[in-house]
C-alpha cells in the first residue's frame, strides 16, 4: 500500500483537473491514477472528488484534505532535499503572469534566475485571465492590482504607477485636455479588465469615460494609443519607450491616479517550496532596483 503515491496522485488531480494529465506526468497510465485515488477514498472512508466527463471537482472534504496533502508533500520534498545536502532549490515551478508585465518586466529576469538556479524547471504561464492557483496547479501568480481573495497571501514586489497618454496626432486633432473633467469629450480607450470599469480613478475626482474602442489587453491599449485612436490610462512602464521616442505624450500629469500594487500570490495554507521562495526573492530584488516599478516589501 503506497499511500504516498495515492496522495501525490490526488494532489495533482486536484491541481490539473484531469486524471489523464496526472497519468502523463507520472507515466503510470490513467486507469492506475483512478485506482490509486479510489483506494485513497476507500482508506479515508469519504469521497474526495466529484467526477464528470468534463472535469474533476473536489468535494468539501476533498478541498480540506488537499490543503493538508499539499503541505505534507512539499514538506517531504524539502526534507529529502535537505537530507541529500542539496543547497540549491530544484524541481518544477509553475508561475502565472499577465502578458504585458511578462513581456516588459518578467521575461528579462528569467535567464539570470535560471543561471543562478539551474535545477529549477520554470513553467511560465503567460495570460491575462485570472487563474485559479489550486485548480491550475500554479505555485506563484504575479498580479497587478489589489488582492481580494482571502485564501491567498501576497508578497508585494513593486508598484505600477499609472499615467494618461495620447499620440501627438490625436492631441493635434482633438486638443489637449486640461483636466479630467474634459475626458468625457474625448475618445478614451477602455481597458475592459480595469477594476473600476469605465471610471478612471483620479484622486481628486474620478471620471466616467467613453470611447469607440474597448480591449481586454494592456498591449491592445498601448497599440491603440500609439496609432492615435484615443487617450489611454496605463502603467507608465508600458509606454516608457514610446514616451522616450515621442510616439506618445503624457497628459494630465498634475492629476494624481492611485498606483496599483504588483504582488506575488500563493495559497495561504500551502507550505511554499524553497524554489518558489527564491523566485519571489529574485523578482523582489530586481523590481526594487527598477525605478519604473521599484517598491518591494514583505508578506501581508
From TrEMBL:
Record protein name field: Transcriptional regulator, LysR family
InterPro entries membership: LysR-type_TF_proteobact-type, LysR_HTH_N, LysR_subst-bd, WH-like_DNA-bd_sf, WH_DNA-bd_sf
Keywords for this protein: DNA-binding, Transcription, Transcription regulation
Domain called HTH lysR-type: residue spans: 1-59
Family to which the UniProt record says this protein belongs: Belongs to the LysR transcriptional regulatory family.
Source organism of this protein record: Hydrocarboniphaga daqingensis
Pfam family, one: HTH_1
GO molecular function: DNA binding; DNA-binding transcription factor activity
